[in-house]
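Re: weekly structure request thread

Next one in the queue (402 aa):
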Amino acid sequence: MAAILGSYTTEWLDLVFRWFHVIASIVWIGTSFYFVALDNHLREPERESDREEGVRGESWEIHGGGFYVIRKYLVAPPRLPDPLHWYKWEAYWTWLSGFALFCVLYYVDARLRLIDPTVADLDPWQAILISLGLLVAAWLVYDLACRLLADRPLLLAAAILGAVTATAYGVGELYSARAAYLQVGAMLGTIMVANVFFVIIPGHWELVRAKEAGSDPDPRPGIVGKQRSVHNNYLTLPVLFSMLAGHFTFTYGHDHAWAALVALMAVGAAIRHYFNRRHAGQTLWWIPVGCAVAIAAIAVWLRPPGAPATPQGTAAVPFADVQQVVAARCQPCHSQRPTYSGITAAPAGVTLDTPAQIAARASQIRQVAVSSTFMPLGNATKMTQQERDLLGRWIAAGAKSR
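Done, posted below.
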């Protein structure tokens, strides 16, 4: 499929969708943070007339050189205001651009980026269909859990954590390490946008239509929508980490990458809980302290292994042998003039054309091709274990280029 689109077209689409996705994500996350904080800032209205009109709470704020007073009605104001501002396209465009980016980077070139033949023997069409099916299944399972456990939030949270853990482990047994992280993030992101599309916005429409019809709105859709909105708020940082983790090989390249993903997602959710409670006037200092300790412990656990000592009497690895391996297995992509089909520029700007470049990247080579088998992607250039061991011995001996 990459050959059909053409490498230039693929790179151009990657750039467009990536920037669109980043901008939409920033806006969506910002509105999620703001409205949950706003809800937690609401206080009982001061005037009796406001309470009689149905004002649940109000919040005074200062910004941009002036004061604001924001009121929340439960269930609706006496008269429907015009214009009424909605917040939905931030979520829709985030998912649409993210899904398009996932297609361009992982579905179009599934054999190279999505599939790891050392993990599972899948054809590209099988891997793509499973990925799409998991996106749909994520929403269906989550929505069912919410309906069954709506009045038991702690049990619901435990069920979601258990499902995320099982998913992280399962997709790690199906896809390449980096793709597995993104698949989990895409599933959570799908849940978030489905909450907006299927629950939150329809609930808002029920309120609006009831007011237009002159009847009293049913408060239940608004309550359910608020619950899903809070869920989205807690999922923002876990999803954000899964999307950024592709830049940190020591996470998805670890032997227990699925556990690292779940642990760091749990830390992200805990950080959101701290700020949500802080906005409500409750400062739980044990949460940031616990998160800091947890991150330090995870960092120690995930730290890349040091270079093994070279046994005495072991013959030095000639750099010519190292250069031969790099030329055959790495340079097809990581070169000023890549030769691998569909690659027109060195990924991440990493080039390994000269002895100096190879030596300078020795620690990264050890991390992605010796301590793990992440590179080459999908082992597209057929690097053998003997070649990985040779690179490891060369690095352990000092990674000399002469």
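The two ends are 42 Å apart (CA to CA). DSSP finds 16 helices and two strands in the chain.
Next request, please.
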